[in-house]
Amino acid sequence: MDKLYKPVKYQCSDHIELKTYFTKYSNLLKKVPPGLNLSEELTPFEKHEAIMTYREGFTPEKREELHSFLSICESDLTIYRVETESPKRPERSKNTERIFLRVARTNKDSATCKIKKEFAVAVRIYHPITKKNGRKKRFQFSHELVVLGSNTLADLRDKIQCRSDFLCLEVKDPTLDIDYSPSSKDVYPSGFIFIDNVFYNDMRHKNAIDYSKVIRTWAAEESTIAPLSTGNMATTCINDLSPRFGYPYVYQHQGDCEHLLTFSRSWLVTNSDPLNTKDYPHLSSFHLISIKLCILCYKKAAKWMCCDSNRLPHKETPLCQECLLEFLYVDGEKRGEFTLYPYIEEDYSNI
């Protein structure tokens, strides 16, 4: 895919073998002298002696070797636009509506991360584009997850939030309690993550199918596309990958719901990170969610999505409970023809 979407357009890194890279980096840190001890209890002479000893151990050669590792992923890489041709430099997103979180540390009995041996990776997830009118549109950031190198792609997928996974069956009576089970994720569990010409399929469920089969069949007939292969999402760990940081990869589920995702940052786990492996993957930031208002009163939050109504101008219309009952129902009976579904936003509280 590098021929179609050239890496130079996304200001991304080269391919990085994560496991090899961080093994070398961890071994390199062992050569670095420990931090300075400049406590208030030391005399000025003892502080000066500690500084001189540190400088002698931290030679210019060691600094240069350390810098060569840090320079690879020192910037926060994100995607700009996905275009096959781009005559001008991509613009940076000016969207600052992003909420950062601090992860609460747990005391659960579980394996702990090995400090300065285990590494973490930040993965950015973007909202899918639903409009297909040919207009260029910037991809909107959804949320960012932090995973360990030992986590699998299936662990990552289970934490990705998308409203498509929580859709339920058509509602016949809006006055009754909504039954959210089974959700569309339970009924249609298939999905894949496409990284570097490999489709990592999620086949954990007995009803799962290989979404990539039709794509691979089509690609085999195209001479301009490199050979594509498949992998198992449940057995592929993050440290098995050699991704480009900042390059857009694809996550697809629920048939044709496609998200772009990027590897944005990576670092060795230290004391400042959660050290409980059960705390990963976890949510590190998300885009500020705007409440969708009812299109009729424009005062209350939408609770329903009315589709294909012959009394409304739009194919999909968000409505609150009161407007729905007043405009589309008379004495509990439907007016006109339409289908009704609960309107569901992404819920980041369960990550």
TrEMBL record:
Principal localisation: nucleus
Protein keywords: DNA-binding, Nucleus, Transcription, Transcription regulation
Entries under InterPro entries matching the protein: snRNA-activating_su3 (IPR022042)
SUBUNIT field: Part of the SNAPc complex composed of 5 subunits: SNAPC1, SNAPC2, SNAPC3, SNAPC4 and SNAPC5. SNAPC3 interacts with SNAPC1.
Gene Ontology process terms (BP): snRNA transcription by RNA polymerase II; snRNA transcription by RNA polymerase III
Protein task: Part of the SNAPc complex required for the transcription of both RNA polymerase II and III small-nuclear RNA genes. Binds to the proximal sequence element (PSE), a non-TATA-box basal promoter element common to these 2 types of genes. Recruits TBP and BRF2 to the U6 snRNA TATA box.
GO cellular component, one term: nucleus
Family in the record: Belongs to the SNAPC3/SRD2 family.
Signal peptide coordinates: none
Originating organism: Ignelater luminosus (Cucubano)
Tagged with keyword Transcription: yes
Domain of life: Eukaryota
Localization of this protein: Nucleus
MF terms (GO), sorted A to Z: bent DNA binding; core promoter sequence-specific DNA binding; RNA polymerase II cis-regulatory region sequence-specific DNA binding; RNA polymerase III type 3 promoter sequence-specific DNA binding
Pfam families: SNAPC3
PANTHER family for the chain: SNRNA-ACTIVATING PROTEIN COMPLEX SUBUNIT 3 (PTHR13421:SF16)
Protein name in the entry: snRNA-activating protein complex subunit 3
